[in-house]
Every structure is written in C-alpha cells, then in structure tokens.
Amino acid sequence: MRRLINGRTYTLNVAQIMAVDPILLEIYRHRFIGVAEEMGVTLQRTGYSPNIKERLDYSCAVFDTEGNMVAQAAHIPVHLGAMPASCEVALRTFTRWEPGDVVILNDPFDGGNHLPDITMLSPVFTGDEPIFFVASRAHHADVGGMSPGSLPLSTELFQEGIIIPPTKLYEAGKLNEGVLRMILANVRTPVERRGDLAAQRAAHAVGERRLQGLVEQHGELEVCAYARHLQAYSERLVRSAIQTWPDGVFVFEDVLELPDDQDAIIRVSVQIAGSNIVFDFEGTDATLQAPLNTVLAVTASACYYVVLCLVEGDVPANAGCFAPVHVKAPQDTLVNASRPAAVAGGNVETSQRITDAVLGALAQALPGRVPAAGQGTMNNVTIGGKHTDGTSYAYYETLGGGMGAAPDADGLNGVHVHMSNTLNTPVEALEMQFPFRIREYALIHGSGGSGQYDGGEGLVREYEFLEPATVTMLSARRRNAPWGLYGGDPGRKGQNTLIDATGKKTELPGLFTRRLKAGDRLRIETPGGGGHSSARNSRST
Amino acid sequence: MRANGQCIGIDVGGTFTDFVVLDATGLTVHKVPTTPSDQSQAILQGLAVLSVDPDAPVMHGTTTATNALLQRRGARTALITTYGFADVLAIGRQNRPQLYEFSQAKRNHLVPRQLRLQVDERIDNKGNIHGKLDRSSLSEMLEVLKQEEVESVAIVLLFSFLNDVHERGIAATLAEEIPDVPVSLSVDLLPEYREYERTATTVINAYVRPLVMRYLTRLRRVLSGRSLKVMQSSGGTLDAQQASKQASRLVLSGPAGGVVGAFALAQQTLSTSSPHIISFDMGGTSTDVALCPGRIPQTTEGTICGLPLRLPSTEIHTVGAGGGSLAYVDSGGVLRVGPQSAGAVPGPVCYGQGGQTPTVTDANLVLGRLIPSQFLGGDSARPLDVQAAISAIAQLGQPLELSPEETALGIVRVANATMERALRRVSVECGYDPRSYILVPFGGAGPLHACAIAESLGMKKILIPLHPGVLSALGLLMADITSDASQGLLSTAEELLHNPERLGNSINQLKPIVLSRLDSDAGEVQLDCSLDLRYSGQSYELTVPMGLPVVPENIRVSIEAFHSAHQMRYGYSAPELPVESVAVRLRATVTREKVIPRPATPTASPFDITQASRAPVYFTADGPMSVPVVKRDILVEGCTFRGPALIVQYDSTVLMPPGWDAEVDQWQNLHLKCGTDHGS
Predict the structure, then answer these.
(1) 20 to 30 A from A418, CA-CA: which of A538, B191, B291, B500?
(2) How far apart are CA A77 and CA A508, in angstroms?
(3) Pick the CATH number of B74-209 from 3.90.226, 3.40.1360, 2.60.40, 3.90.550
C-alpha cells in the first residue's frame, strides 16, 4: 500500500531492499519495544490524574508511515485494534505533516473508541518526510457529558462528552490554543486534563527522540526495513500457530445485560481455515438505546486479544499479528455501531462480553486451551461531587473480580480479566483525596465457580459517602453468572447494593446513575470466575 | 578501619563465598564454595584458611533473607489488619501479572488465608479515631495465633502512619501474651501512606525475621566475639543485632555491595568524591546495572517476588541475561537468548555436565574469547569442551543458514542488546547521558562484554577493577554504616514554608530512632535529611535532599531541587504549580575510610605486548584475528597497550577489541579508552 504524505507518494519499499537478518531482527525487536515502553514510562510518570499514574490506563505505540503498528507498550488489550484505527484516520485526514505536529482525537466514529480515551499522534522526522508516527491513548477521568466521569447511562453519543474529531492540537510545534480552550471548557476537571494532555505530548517527545537516535545510528533504510520485517515476523508466528488449530466453524452466543432487565445477544461464528481465522458477528442484536454499543475497532481488539493469548511464546504486538485475523460484523449491530450511537460503556463492558463469546466459540475448537468465563465486567464506578471547599471532583475506578479457571489452573482472585489490567487506587490515597470512606475491600470467599479447577474469587468494596455525590455504575454479570466449562460451576453473580444511614438495603441494577446522600453506602460485590471441568478432586481451601 | 588496620569482607553468592581481607599490606582474596543450608559453615571454613586477627571486624553480605523469600522458606506469619481489609495483600493492585495468559500461577502472599486476622478499629484520614479498638476481638485473635503456632506477626492498620495508637496497643497485648513471637509494626518500618505497599513491606519483614535472627545468632557464635555488620539493600551496613529486627532491610542487599565497591574504586582511582559511573555486574543468570551520578543511587521502589518493598535500596536494574542464558531459534525464525538460563547445573554445553542448549558462554568460547586453559584458573578437573560447544552452536545455526561463528556472534549480539536496553533504562530513560559516564564492569562475564556494550551506547571509558570477581566483597569493606527512618508528611510546600516547625518535629522524632540503631562506638555521625516531593495531584514522588536546620531557606532550596530533578527525569518542570510533600526521610551515616592500599608491586619484567602469546579471536565472521593473550597479574602500574587483546585472570576475562587503548594505574586497575575513530 502506498500513501500520500506531504504531497508525495511514499514508494520506498524498504523491506524488499534490505534482506532480513535473524539476529538484527531480534535486536530490533528490543529496540522498537524499548521505544514504546519508554514512552509509556514517561506518560505514567508525568501523568496528572490517578487514572494514568496509578491505574496505568493508557497505551503507547509506534506506527510506520503506512499506518501499520510497529510496536505497542500495551497495558490495555482493548487498545490493540483501536490504536491502529486512530492512526489510519489521522493519516487519511491529514496529508501534510510538519515536525512538531500533534493530532488529537476521540471521536469513536472517526478513529476513537469511546470519548474518555483521547488519542494523540505525532510524526517523527529525520529529514523532510515523516518516517514514523508515535501515538498515545490515555483514558481521561472526565471529558464532560451528562455525568461526572463521562461513563453515563446515555442513549446517544452527544450525551457522553466533548467529541474531538481528528484535529491538530499543535501545528509545527505551536499550540492551537483555541482548540485546547475549547476542550478544557467542556470538561469538569480542566487542570487535570491539561496536565494529562501535556504528559501525552511528553511521551511523544521521548518516542520521537529515540526513533531519531536509532536512525542517526543505523540509517533510515535499516530502521524502516526492520520495522516491516518485525511485522512479517509476528505474522509468521501467528500464522504458524493458527495452522495447528483444527479447521472448522464454531458458534457461540453470550448475553449482554441492558438497563431495562432485558438481555441483548452477541453471537459469533469463528471460522478457522488454514492459517487464517475469521470472526463473524452476524446474528448479533441491533444497535442499542444504551451506552453499550461498540465500534468495530473495539470488537476487533477483543478478537485480537484472544488470538494473542492462544499463540504461545511472546509475539511482539504489531500489525503483523492481526493480518491473519479477520473481523466482520453487520453495520448497525451493537458490535459495529454507527454515529450517533451511545458507546461509553462499549469499550469497558461490551468488549468483555465479546471476548467471552469468542472464547465460548473457541473452547469448542481448542478445549484444552480456553478458560471458563471470568468476571466479564470492569465494574466501572464513577463518582462526582463537591469537596467541602466547593470545588468539583470526578473519580473513576474499576474493580477486579474472579478470573475464569483454565483447563490446568485455578483462576486468580480479585483481578481484572481480559480487556483491562488497570491498577486500583490505594484506599488511603483516595480517602485523602475524596469525601468518602471505604468500609470494606476484600475477597468474597467461595465466589469462584468450583470445578476440577476453581474460578477466581470476586471482591467486595463498600463506599460510605461523607458528602452527597452522584454515582454512575456500568457493571455486568449481575443477572447472568459467568459460565463454567466442561462441568465446572458458574461463578457467583455480582451485586450492587445501596445501604442507607438506617441500614436499609436496596438492590441496584448493573447499570445506574443515582444521587446519593451523605451517610449512604454503596456495596459492590463483583462476580467470581467460572470453574473448569467437574470437581472430581476434593479441594483444600 | 581499626587501628591495626585489618578488616574482613565476606560476601555469600550462589556458587562461591568470597573473602576479601584488607590491611596495610593490601588485599587478600579467597573463595570457598557456598554452603547453602547454612551459610555460616563456608564462612568458618574460609576464616580457618586465612590468617586474620582474632578481633578483626567482619562486614557481611548475606542472601539468607532473599533466599527465604525466593524459596518461600520464611516463618509461619500472621497478618493483623483493620476490619474489612484482611485481603489487602492478596488483592494487591488488582492487576494480573501476565496480560496475555489464560493460565497463571497464583501469587503466594506469604500469609495463608486463615492467618489474615482482622480487628475492629478505624483511624480516619486525619489521624482521628473513627472506630475504637475493640479489645474483645483481641482475645479471639490470640487463640488463633497460639493454635496455629504462628512464628511471626505483622500488624498493619489503615492510617497508622497518622496515628499509631492501635498498632502499638495490639503489639503491647501480644508482647504480654505471646512474648516469644516477634511482632513487626508497619509504623516502625514504613510509616507512610499506601496500604498495600506498607502491608507487603511489613509482612516481608515478619516473614524473614525469625530466619535472619537465627542465622545471625549462629554466625556471631562462629565469629566468636568479632564485631559483625551486615549489608543492607541501601548499600550501607548495619550492626547484626539491629539487622535481626529490621530483617527486610537486607532483602535486596545482594547486588548492593558491587555497586558500593565500584563506586569506591572509582572514587579512589579517579581521585574524585563524586565519580559518574555505570556499574555493570554480569553473572551467570542475570546482569545488574546501576547508574551513579556522583553518588550511589537510592530508591524506595524495590520489589521482590512480585511484592513491593518500600525501604531504601540501591537503585539497581536487573535483567535475565548472563553467561548461562540459553540461545534458541523460535518458530518465527529468530535467534533468541534467555531469559531461561542453564544455571550452575547443567551449565553451558562446554562444561560437559549434560547441558545441550548453547549459552552465551559457549558462544564466547567458540569465538575464542575464552581460553579453555585459563578459564577459572585452568581448572583441570573441569576442562572446557570446545568441540561440544561448536557442534551445539553449529546445530543451532543450521536452520538459519549461519556458520557456527556467525551464530556465536549473533548470540553475543542479542545478549548485548538485552543488556544495552538495561543500561538505557537506567541512563537515557532517567534523563542521564551515558556518554559522559564511565562503565565499571565486573562479575565473571562483565569485562568480556563491556567494550561492545560501551560502544553501543557511545561510552568512551571503561574501568576494570583488579579483582572483578570479588568486587561485591570489597564493597562491603567500603560501605558506610547507615541507619534509615522515614515518616509520612502530607503537606503543601506552602504550609511547610509558613510553618517549618511541623517538619522540624518530624525530624526530631526520627533522630533518636536512627541514632539508636547505630552502635554507640561507631564514630562521628552525620545526619542527612530528604523530602519526598511531588506536584500536587501527582502520585509519584521524587526524593530530594533537605538541608538542616529546618528553616524556610533550606526548604526553598529543596523545592528548587525538586523542580530540577523533575526536569531531569521527566523532561519538564512546572515551577508555577503547587508542590506537596509526602514523606520525610532521615539517614544517619558513620563514614568509613575508603582506602585500598597499593598492591605490593610484583617484580615483573617490563611488559611488552608484542611478546605475548597469541590466540585466534573472532570479531567478525570473516575469520579470526590473531590477538595477544595477556595475564592480568603482569599488568602493573604504567603499562599501556592497544587492543585487540585478551586479558585473562582467575575468574574473569577482559576482551579488548581493536580501537581500544589500555592503561594500568597504581592499584593495577585497568583503564580502557575508546580511540577517536571508534564508538558512535
């Protein structure tokens, strides 16, 4: 594929010019991953919000000039397929690049995934032409919209926050102040946002310097050639793995819980043929009037994630990994939504259920490899309110739960599963920062589905509010338990409970927004993971 | 050093226990095989061989605490927490260790579920008692502790760093009821916020404490009356009795001695108090690197076995690449090296102990970079099998269509790439330019790879110690005696400036603590204070020095230092943003004299490299180069020569490629310089 950059067609097919050396290839693997990781370290260290610094809710990546991902420092699997989509859109939108340019975007229907994930992208120059692009995506704790934390119970995109189409935030190093002011005017915590955006730019500066250093030392031809060789290498690894999987078509359906006690169906048929694998979501329910739709890039991320897990050995995550993986879904289904569908929770919740559905299908093809369902939710909690001094705060946290049992191991207790791996905020840190108190944060003993291997345990966290606050929760597996496999029991369902000052308990649904009073308590119990195989052995506790 | 001068450094490693005796006549070096079941046995053997004064003090580096953790052989430990938070340690940070693995081993949290006990109490975020300690719940808990035959207890309550009354209250009860069980309090060890890190650190202490206590008691008996100091993770030593109580301070001490040794050596030979070096300790299974920007770098962000250990430690980055790292070709047709290692058994193919997979050591042998007759002094009981190494490497290279030499060069390059990344992490990623640093390689394999690594980072100078194999033991003798304490201090910088008394009070509270942990006769004590600062809202801190006394000017200097440290490390600073403090740290130091006497000059004839014997060494796959092989002990002060050369000694080999010049100093250290036509 050739691409127009700065008015010229970029035709240098460097990979063909320079033959691959198996030793240099390994060395370049270290080099490119090193660049992405160094960017990640910078973003974490310079980030402002706890969400970035403490929870590591971000990714950094290097792309070649054709928009193919060369390396990613991935903390968050859901960004796997969605980062390349951003790069592609940015390259389509802008054909002229100058050193110091920074593109910003979050529009889910134009390169983003959901509004809180803000992506930035910068070209890397060593001469007149960009030779690479570096990108970062960070989950910002608030981007405006109808509820603090910007994960609302929305019915259309416009309620979810500020929509940023691909825009140059910096042009040739010069800040486009109007754009920044516009963004900051639309969010609840502008100081924090400004700090986090600056951190993303700092990460880009590091990536840029490192890539320029590599080119200075080894020459553009070699560096660009190995950026492509590395993708071919990953593709070889993934293809040779898929080749060993049994050919066939495997179908599975799982359900997504909706606000009105209804369930939506996600249906996938997985076709393995030779070294290719096709995920077809034909038969999935139509776009929802709820914030649980996803764009196709997020659906693809879930499929990529599962394939990467099933390929043994550490395959460098780049565009090559995904070449043998084909994802399709009819337009206007909940896994391939169109503007202006609500998508706030698609990224964090629906992506988990897509993963479950894909695993359920592949369990039939690879019974000895695929685990039972994990908690299947991120238990998103957003809380907004005012400090005693009148300033606003927005708090976002996700809670771990049980991991599904594998065919050869118990599931882990109280961890994030599949599409997320963010860290928690220390209890002592958040009590010092926000007007609430944590009454309990513990594992729920026995909540993992039992089996020959047990599912992991869910956990409980109980918030007590010292001031009135608005709470929004996007959580799932409250009505449908995470399934076990091959006779393993399902995990315990999750539960959200409101306890008022008198001790009266009210069960809350999986998805809700609610104004809580001082003295109210919110008790969140997260699901356990499913067990694997029927329990023949008596197990110690 | 004592008046009569003699002191003994004893460093326990995985294979050997190293002895270095330092006195007015110079250094005596000795090695004894380590006795893993009881490290004091090898010490006894070594001391019996060496002629040392009966009262010469011993500085000791031990892996007892580290191994107890790595092998999960620590004490049966109970953890007492605030009600509702028994699983803080088990939950950790809620993340899974591997991102892309469906099947993952459960983490061992050191405390089994039935020994995670809770008490009804709550301190709030201001240090007020929100829920009173329910003493009735204690008696039940005591029953469990007795019944379960608990050997050690950790107490970690929420916000105890703001108010320790409940932690101390429980400890007092335990001291009465089960006086023989050691109790570790989070407020004594790490009175700082973040409950998971504090809990892990306290539990680690409780877990290793009984074992370390027993070992040090045994060792003191073996040493019959000698003074005994033990290396801490921080790179300072501590009296053995104190070390028994704060056993977690020893956990990351293993690689610290080497950094201290490298730093002291550089101080002396470069005659500067603040040399800029990168230490590079390459062993069999791993490589430790540390960047010293004029001081020994410190961190409080250590980890062991996946658990955070938030006590001062030498900032060292470790990667799983060493002489024993295994080379293989993966299914994508790429040559990979490590992190799996051949270990001591079976070891590299050339050891002939059953190893089948070629290692970095085998590659070096095939390239002629190790001389079989010189390896480990040419141990005739363990001759190196060159043929076996060649055929293993030939087999590896076959599918890649590479000759044995090309494959061997590839193995070395790939291993070097891993180590280059480690050096980048401590230098470039932290804002330091490696080109202005001197590389100090040691350990068995460090000097063999040093020049290539230096070239890849544009470093021009290398300093190779006279005894690269025992630098860690030498470091024990060079280490200062130190004692550390810290306290959470959550305050805005503004407040600190307006009201310095609060900081002053904290320091006054820490002072008796650090002083009491030094022995009374240690010598003149220096107190150093530092502050953990961050921009308001950040959650990572940087530690900056804080001058005493506590007056606004000194606080202001610290804040300035924070801005520049932030600029250095993260590439930006924001003087307009509010700064806040998180913790205050105090270190008491008794400085030890760091003099390495000049070795007695051997009566060597003038060195002439053209007279040296030669051996074929591969630098490229085209063919070997005939390279002089020089014995290290004939290299005395004033020798200069030009690479290529191979310098051999008992436990290490130096490889000098073409383009490097060597010079020997008065302590017989080797200084290598990269010619102007070379490097990057």
Answers:
(1) A538
(2) 29
(3) 3.40.1360
